[in-house]
Amino acid sequence: MTSLRRFPRFDFASKFTTTSCTSSSRRGFSTTTSSGSSGGSCTEYALTLQQQQQLESGSTGKSINLFSAINQALHIALDSDPRAYVFGEDVSFGGVFRCTTGLADRFGKQRVFNTPLCEQGIVGFGIGLAAMGNRAIAEIQFADYIYPAFDQACIVNEAAKFRYRSGNQFNCGGLTIRAPYGAVGHGGHYHSQSPEAFFCHVPGIKVVIPRCPSQAKGLLLSCIRDPNPVVFFEPKWLYRLAVEEVPEHDYMLPLSEAEVIREGSDITLVGWGAQLSVMEQACVEAEKEGISCELIDLKTLLPWDKETVEASVCKTGRLLISHEAPVTGGFGAEISASIVERCFLRLEAPVARICGLDTPFPLVFEPFYMPTKNKILDAIKSTVNY
Fold first, then answer.
1. What is the DSSP string of 135-203?
2. Which of residues 217, 247, 277 is at a domain's end?
3. Quick one: average pLDDT of 26-52?
4. What is the pLDDT of residues 128-185, one digit of tens each?
5. Residues with catalytic annotation?
6. What pTM did the predictor assign?
7. Residue 236 shares a structural domain with residue 294
8. How far is Cα 87 from Cα 99, in angstroms, rounded to an integer?
9. Which among 116, 151, 292, 314 is placed 20 to 30 Å from 245, CA to CA?
10. Same domain, 292 and 228
11. Domain span including residue 315
């Protein structure tokens, strides 16, 4: 069927390596902030209709990859708000994935600076910085290492509850935590995990994952300027492989609004991040066999857009969810439960989940662990023929 939003070009000739790197290494949330808070109003950064049309047409940008789009967003955030700061391990020289290249040179080491190798310290510092009315953009070098910050971060007992426990007198809404997540082809146990489901269980934060460069830039700027703490996971597999035209101007994309990127009538597929490109390939193969797939990018996992998914499932009668994280307790389970509650009488088949396996993330066996195109295609056919 019709593809409403094209995917970026994947330049597989570009190896996933870093260069010149010496390191080893809104629904239901506040939309206003109290006096002196770090949240601010998003209306001052509103995307104009003309800018949105330019973004959709892709006529005003240049072709860049995902890490460059992240870099552009950070440049704009620092340039447009003198209260913004970027910090984390190795960010002053560009970071392991080069997302912060050039920031320290342009904005100075007082606003872009390295931290010790201490994730709980990085996030704890960010909470305090944001609570004092600043925009704290913290980088966790790999999402696999965000767990030491789980208590301090939004992450669970501090940032997520800061506004609530003070009766909205104080907040740390200016905090954004960036972290590369997911498979990379050779990351093994400690550089390949997808921990998004842990954070989706925590009221008081937002969880956002982009699928391509233009989405990454617009969503990251929205997260930085949102009046709530946000965890922004970046699919590191796509840092260099995903290439498309990205507008160079300042723009934002709405949070908590899913996007139908491919229309269909037989089955609804829901995913996020790098998995969307795999699901798109499965949709193309299914179409060759006469199966019409509707593909939805959730983009924001917390709070997620139930209405868009519900409307699609009521139309198709079937649902398949796919993500890299292990299937047990993954966010796909929450989507499945919610849609069964809302659409039970419209479902023609059980909800299918094609996800990572319930094992630690393997190294040599990564191809067997991953929810591949063929696994998704088999599940599509099985669900449609149920």
1. EEEEE-S-GGG-GGGTTTSTTTTSGGGHHHHTTTS---TTEEEEEEES--SS--TTSS---HHHHTT-T
2. 247
3. 39
4. 999 999 999 999 999 999 999 987 545 678 899 999 999 999 999 999 999 999 999 8
5. 119, 191
6. 0.86
7. no
8. 12
9. 292
10. no
11. 259-385
